[in-house]
Write a structure and sequence with these properties.
The complex is a heterodimer. Chain A is mainly α. In chain A, 73% of the residues lie in helices and 0% in strands. About 1% of the residues of chain B have low confidence. Classes of the chains: A mainly alpha, B alpha+beta.
Chain lengths: 256, 418
Amino acid sequence: MGLRRLRVLRDLSVQLVLRDLKLRYRRTLIGLAWSFAFPIGQIVVLTFIFTLVLPTRVGKYSAFVSIGVLAWTWFQSSLVMAATSITGNRELVRHPGFPSTVLPISVVGTNLILFLMAFPAIVLVVLYDGGHPGLGTAALPLVVLVQFLLTLGISYLVASLNVSFRDTQQMVALLLLLFFFLTPIFYDPASVPTAYRALYNLNPFVVLLDGYRATLIHGGLPNFVGLGELGALGAAMVVAGHFMFRRASHNFAEEI
Amino acid sequence: MGQISARRISKRYRFRSHGRGRHPGVLNEDLRFGSRRGEFWALHEVDVEVGPGQMLGVIGPNGAGKSTLLRLIGGVGRPTSGSIRVTGRMGSLLELGSDFHPELTGRENVIMSGIIAGLTRRQVLARMDAIVEFAELKAFMDSPVRAYSSGMLLRLGFSVAIHTEPEVLLIDEVLAVGDQSFRAKCLARVEQLRGRGCAILLVTHDMTLAAQLCDKALWLNKGRVMQLGPADEVVRAFAASMDWETRSRTPVDWHAQLTTDGTELRMMENRFGSMELQVTDVRLIDGIGRRCRSLQAGERLRVEIDYRADQALPAPNFGVVIRQENNTVLFDETIPAAKVGLVTAYGPGTVALNFERLDLNSGEYHIDVGVYRHDWAYAYDYHWRAYPLTILAATEVKGAVNPPHTWEGPEPPVRGTG
């Protein structure tokens, strides 16, 4: 693959992201703000419940839950959109010369942009809640990168599976709902009974969310070993997912 | 410099036939075990070779596999067997504008579409003015394309595609639409690309266009290659064939009919066509004006075709084929009747073909007569091998023709007559 080809692929991904952002809420009243309506609603309700109705021991709860919800939203929206990224883009996929492999990238990229756009708001909440970002916050991009790799790897898998097996889409929605509760988004992972701890910690988001929170709220360093392993896993999943995707892509045109 | 090289490519599609009314259940009908499956070959061992500056026309009835072939070569899907090699940047004129998004403006769509076609963003922007000018849409570039007419979409799509400087170009039908002047402009542009070494594959139903533009033509039918060769030959063969369309329009319950010579014309056996126009009689007339079944070699022959059209039909095409006993075609010509002054066929009439001389060798021959719709879509009436003709030559030679000929040597010439 030549340098020029890479440049075209880059431009194509960027263009797809821009198109998606531009189109998503076109002709709605508040436009892109809709992207934040969901996480903000969740954050407000969760904060209300777990500080007033069922108070938890977690300190700086609104900062804690904001980070959890927004990071999860990036992951969740990416997978939901990735599932239909091939089946919902018939015209593009059937266009001679169109590299379908950019579609999952653009989906994860679009949601990354939305995540990053919400970032200033998170920082404000953290500061308001008494958190103190510090030197450790510099390690934050690493956490973002690891999440990007993991999400992209799974997105490739989900996108290609959904082409010949449309149940994937429904299964993804169900699993995401279940994992919302099995992920330390709105509660402290330390409250999970030790007997289940080993199993629970297999969820990559335990390490990821801890990374976000350690660096943002406490200005500390993330768990580099855990992140390193997770990063390696993410890279492996991108390679494997992309490989599967490539193999399946020969049938995309006739299956959609 | 572009090149397309496809060898023995086949494409098999599998499908599941849905059973009707069986136990509705949790599993979807098409996933349930035991549902009947089938397969068909959309393409079977097709070779395609298009070099730089060449243009190959792909013709054939609907369902022949033309579009499948185009897509496979375009890298959409993969052949079940065989290999495809395409060198050079690919441009495509298929379903023009299908990659446009209705909510985006013309300009935004051009950028997207250009990048999809393999340009960088910078390259697209550099060509934007040329693209807009060619499409003649300067005033509309900042409106969303949902407000465009289909003609405008087509123009914009075409303009983007050709400004990507393709080295390999895939064209599906699109040249058939659009207004005359834009069409001429497009054709000129395609010719220009070809002159620069672009390899072009053109799928079309327009036989005249195929014969005019293409070096070679490939005739497909049900996924198989019927003929590959010089465009005009293949186009003629296709037009003369009792193609799918004609067969599907042939009324089966039409009464069998005897020709004056006593050959029985039976539908779907030796007579095909929609019967909107019927050939009522065909007369073979010899040099002295008599109906005949046999001729001396070198004699004149006039083939008179009587027809009757039950409704007014725009200038049909009339054709005559002469074949040998083994079906080898010796003569085959079809002309638009407009060329001999028949603009509209309505009611009875006669069209005749005169051979000044027919220098065939001794033997049994068969004459086909066919009348086709003006656009070659199907035949109105085709009589296959319905009119036998015996040729008697005075001299014995081998081969198909026996024109007057003489041998010369050192001795005084010995005459031989044809």
